[in-house]
Batch of 4 targets.
Target 1
Amino acid sequence: MATFPLVRGLKLRATLINNCGLPIAGSASSLVTDGYVSAKLTAVMNDAEELEQKNAEGRVCVSDRTPPERKHYQVELELCNVNTGLISMFTGWEQILDYNGDSAGFQDATEVSQYGVAIEIWTGGRSDDDCPVPTEDSIFSTAAAGSTGKKYGYLLFGANEWTVGDINVNAGVSTIMLSGITIAMPQWGRGPYNVAAIDDKGTPGRLLVPVGADSHYTFFRTSVEPPENTEGSEPVALEIATTFVDPDFYYGGPPPLNAPAADVAPDGVTPDAPAPKVPAGVTGPATVTAKPVTAPATASPSGSTKPSGTDTGTISS
């Protein structure tokens, strides 16, 4: 049984996805940052319903109760740095580029982007079972080379319908709040990144099992260290079709062999350098310029929903 505290938010990785959780390959589809203050998920529930039928005498003759059911989670992500590329990835807003082709700002739009973003968050905190007492010497041969022995909390969820909260400029420190709602990510599969140990040597690999068809978040303890911040603080390219090739399949190989999905994500999924610069002016957002692996699904935006549940989780840096 794994038990661990939630202490500090360390890193956050954002990856552009469609409404089914499919990672969207493109020139500006992935970014790692520590420039956030907190991440909060609040459960939005269909409340339980009491069902009763009274007879002619006025007494209850049939009684039952439907259980409560989770609809989704309301997400609030507070940023401490105005990262224009990240905001464009979430909202679909156009970026404003300076004379050198660097992102200098953004401008809002009327419609809410129907693309989504997969969020991965690594947390700190030491658990009592992080360092079990050895009973024999095999630990020397199985321990991962160069491992610090440290473990992290890992949280994964996808969300869409991202909007930007109030802009407050004053004499104090201001932050930007992004709000969205979670979605199921059945097409995320085991994911394009190495985030979990796949053997007793701590070899970094993909998720051990695919994301469930109805799951809205995944949470576990991992010995795989969080990634470094993206160089230049701007979204970088995500390569799927050109990196997950035989025998390293993303979902699995074609018949008749039906090779299994790769346990370890191949190198080159994300490059070491930021996306190339484009001419100055106003450029389309990452959610428009990125090229999907397959045609992304779309969904009609829903109205804003006030959470009726009280199940709230918050991760703060």
Note: Residues 7-47+65-238+278-316 form one domain.
Target 2
Amino acid sequence: MASPVIKSQPHDIVDLPAMHNANPKPPVSIALFLIGILGLFVFPLTRLYAIEHPVPASPLWLTYSGGDGPGAGKHVVLVAAEQEYRSEHSMPMLARLLAKHHGFHCTVLFSLNKDNEVDPTQKIKWDDKTVMHNIPGLEHLKHCDLVIWFSRLLSLPPDQLQHVYDYLDSGKPIIGIRTANHGFIDWDYKKDGKKVDFGVGVLGGAFRGHHGRWQQDSTRGIIIEENKDHPILKGVTDIWGTSDVYRTYKEDSSLPQDCLPLVNGQPLVGRKQDDAVNTELIPLPVAWVKTWTGNTGLTARVFHVTMGSAKDFQNEGLRRMTVNAAYWCLEMEAKIQERSSMDIVGPYNPPDSGFNYKKLNIVPQKPSYYQ
């Protein structure tokens, strides 16, 4: 039987208080139904919005959406553009770690050849004056929160370099890894009308030579006692890597005064973690912090580490120091946890460093190969 339709008359007086008292609460079943509808439609949309990556997917770069974690909502761009230390392996590894364990959105940009392949075998302008490198996606530096830069002797077209220059004027932080301190050949950034070197001026030092035997010695990291309480060193122990120590200043000089050294590198005689100390070589700084102020007057935090081959990053101490540096650079040091996860996500068996590409089986690959 159909429910009767009750029509109110034009002059009916509706007693709202009486109606309210008659039905003080909606039936429980209706309330639960409404909550269910809310859960089906609103909550998933909120979650989708939270994990949406700020950079569109592309075959030219890699993106990793951040999950839950202290870095949620922050975007880190990592640049892998060198020919020796297998950054095409280490930067995606760091991106996966930062995204999964710490919540950061990450984008990895590469130096690509004419076939849009990641190609560490590309020559540099010192070997071929016609060389011009290409890093698609540098325009995304404009909206990221942090860049982790790992390049070596690049020659980029002016429009791509301009994205880097603009970033240096943005007041946003920078992490430079190993060869980043000699990351460019064609470089023309100026401040107050004077050319500023990316290594010396921005990062605090430039490559002046191998402090030890290249491809033969390794490095033991020694935390500097007076700076051991710096947030970047929280939970960091047992730093070691197969790459040798860089000298970044003249032998009769020292690290610039605006740099705070965190870790010294002691050369070892050999490439095993328990090899003996090379007593003929003193430790030199391999990790430090400083600030950088560009043309706009905005000041950024900077962390530079001269270790950082892909093999080096198999060491948890180096991974933790680098991830902690990302927090510190973003002024999030209060969120650094001594025992936060630094576990590698997915397989990670990078080739060794060097230029013997045939022996190491280094061949051009599409960016997706490193996903």
Note: DSSP finds seven helices and 14 strands in the chain.
Target 3
Amino acid sequence: MLKFGQKIAIGGGITAAIIVAVVVMASTNIFSHNSGINTTNQNNASTPSTAQNNIVSSTSSSSSRVQIVAAENFWGSLISQLGGTHVQVLSIVTDPNADPHEYESNTADAQSIATANYVIVNGAGYDDWAIKLIGASNNPSQKVLNVANLLDKKAGDNPHFWYDPSYVNQTVAQMYSDLVSIDPANTAYYKQQYVDLNDSLGQYNNRINEIKQKFAGTQVASTESIFVYLANATGLDLVSPPEFMEAVAEGNDPPAQSVVEFQHQIQNGTVNLLVYNAQTVTPLTQNIKAMAAQKGIPIVAVTETIQPSDISFQDWMNAELISLQNGLNAKTLGQ
């Protein structure tokens, strides 16, 4: 698993020269390739439950729309809803069965990024492969949003920014500003899309507040650092050893003392709920999960990328929050 801030080689040993050659040779629109990567163009961003990662017919021709590449589908969903019929969005990392930390890029990714008008990356070491491709393509007219830079984060910081509602709001605001800058002729349209998206995000934000009001201070645990931001937002007391969560996220073996401490928390009933990252599974996290199940501790699965991949960001997040709420209620009721 990739460490925070660790750089990986571009898939297949692609050199900058090969990337440029691929771009020059491309004679068709980048978003028509069939590489297994999902492409999004959502016609009505005010209905966010619409599928996010499929090509949808539009009155606008492909060439007239802003071409956007999002390194991950959680950011791709949001920009697709903002841009509506005036953008064509390709989300690269979408596989619900793979660990996004271990993604390796390919020539199709290089071609897509090189010719996009707008590229969105998570940053902070989460998707260095995309940042390498951006640098190799050397497209001076391209606008790039590095979410980590926007949030004043760096490699080594917890990169799961999409699990923090305040960071999501900041990122969406920057996306809106960037779209207006790239395509000022459609400013009025983007403004309405921005209003609609914020309204739609309201249900997700309201549920976070509901959990905080009812369960603030409740002790919970997580197998990985993906849950840290959301635990803070909901007011839950995340007591699992930070060294354990960070090591798992970085693909390292947790310190022995942190393993003992975590197991003790499970065994003695310190935690009321376990959050389990279903996309970064190791024998050790599976063991922790099994111990929690034996003790009757509710287990809530979360994922790195949108699952299922054809729903909106806010529908995905709201479903996870409902599971969290149900798990906390179950423990409170002694079920």
Note: Residues 1-59 have pLDDT under 50 and may be disordered.
Target 4
Amino acid sequence: MAIFCQFRTRCRTTLVHSSQIRMSQTETQYRQVIESCRSLFLKKNTDYGSSWRIMRLPSITDQIFIKAARIRSVQEKGLQKVSDSLESEFVGIINYCVIALIQLKLKGRDWTKDLATQELETLYNQVVEENIALLFQKNHDYGEAWREMRIASITDIILMKLHRLKQIENNEGRTLVSEGIGANYQDMLNYAVFALILSGPNDLQTR
């Protein structure tokens, strides 16, 4: 009996250690994807300023929908006639989700004024860190089940969340039992990161 208990303890310790290694790998890959997205975001901010501040949340939702719909269309047809890669569309989804979450943080502020680059980068980083915290919470409960998902399934989940989000927006943000607007943007952001991790090494600077 004592030998069995020792064996069970060793197995449990091994599983915990293995889980910690996987989570460390996930965080590293997550941050690598985000670093490429952030770099592109800040470069575009240098070119255009924070012109996106004019966009209301439903407009941002629609922009994300356009990108997700194109991804699904190309996945179903098996070919594309526009050179923009599907990876670049997932990058766009990530950055638009960040924009939406920043807009929620800045609710009530004058949208006609540009944000200083330093403040914008700080806000971007805050959103990312909040999402990584959410990722760790969900991975604790679900494990790394997302690693077994197909990218097409991730696309469908993003589109499903977009339809939910549109309904919530049509209800003026009111929900009875569902997650709120911000939670849906957070989930879509994380799913888009998962898609890029599962896609393997790619040049994320495309768009």
Note: The chain has one domain: 25-199.
